[in-house]
Amino acid sequence: MTLEAVPDDRGAERLVRAMHFTDLEAVTAIERRTFTLPWSLAVFSGQLTRETGIDLVCELGGGIAGYVVADMFVDVWHLMNIAVDEPFRRQHIAAELLEAYFAITELQGHRGHTLEVRVSNTPGIQLYRSFGFVTTGVRPGYYSDDREDAAIMWKDWEGESA
Ligand SMILES: CC(C)(COP(=O)(O)OP(=O)(O)OC[C@H]1O[C@@H](n2cnc3c(N)ncnc32)[C@H](O)[C@@H]1OP(=O)(O)O)[C@@H](O)C(=O)NCCC(=O)NCCS
C-alpha cells in the first residue's frame, strides 16, 4: 500500500506505506529504544512473511518515524505492535498509522480488533480509546520482565455483516 506523501508542519515529507525487509534495521532500532521486551529482527521478518499480516511504516523526511504490525487470527484482528520514535511523538503519526490500518481491515468482514497494553501505558491506552477501543479484561502478570498486568482492549467491527 502506498499513499501520497504529504509535507508535515515542518515541511518534511510524510508517508504511510507497507513495511519492507529493507526497513527492518531502522524499525528494530526504534523497537530497542522503545520497549523493555523488544521484538527481534527475526520476529519482524517472520511477521512480514505472513500473508494475513498488515505491516506499515510512517516515513518522515526519508527516515522511519514509526510502524504498526497487525495480523488476523481466525476472525479477529490483533494489533500486535505500534511505536513512534520519541522525537516524533504527538504529531498524530500513530493515529495516521492506525487510520491506514483500519482502512485496510475494513475491506473484509471480521468480528473486531483486539490488543494487549501495559496497564501503566497511558499514551497507548489513550490512543486506543481515541479509536473506540474499550478495556474488556486484564491478563495478570502478562509481561515477563516485571510481571506488569496487561489490559485487554477490544473494538467491534463497524462494517456490514456478510
Ligand atoms: C503510544 C504511541 C504509539 C503514540 O504515538 P504518537 O504518534 O505520539 O500518538 P499520536 O500523536 O498519533 O496521538 C493520537 C492520540 O493518542 C492519544 N495520545 C498519544 N500520546 C499520548 C500521551 N502521551 N498522553 C495522552 N494521550 C496520548 C491522544 O488522544 C492523541 O490525540 P491528540 O494528540 O489529538 O490528543 C507512542 O507514545 C509510543 O510509541 N509509545 C511507546 C510504544 C507504545 O507504548 N506502544 C503502544 C503500546 S504496545
Description:
- The protein contains four helices and eight strands, in the order ββααβββαβαββ.
- The protein is of the alpha+beta class.
- The protein has a single domain, classed as Gcn5-related N-acetyltransferase (GNAT) (Aminopeptidase, 3-Layer(aba) Sandwich), CATH 3.40.630.
- An eight-stranded mixed sheet has the order 1-2-3-4-5-6-8-7, sandwiched between helices.
- Bound molecules: coenzyme A.
Principal-axes shape call: globular
The CATH architecture comes to 3-Layer(aba) Sandwich
Q: In angstroms, what is the radius of gyration?
A: 16 Å
Distance between the termini: 25 Å
Compute the number of helices. 4
Ligand types: coenzyme A
**What order do the helices and strands follow?**
EEHHEEEHEHEE
The total count of strands amounts to: 8
Strand order of the largest sheet: 1-2-3-4-5-6-8-7
Mean pLDDT across every amino acid position: 93
Helix content: 25-40%
CATH-assigned homologous superfamily: Gcn5-related N-acetyltransferase (GNAT)
Number of domains: 1
The CATH topology annotation reads as Aminopeptidase
Q: Helices and strands: which structural class?
A: alpha+beta
Model regions low in confidence, pLDDT < 50 over at least 5 residues: none
**Beta strand %:** 25-35%
The CATH class is Alpha Beta
How would a textbook summarize the main sheet?
A: 8 strands, mixed
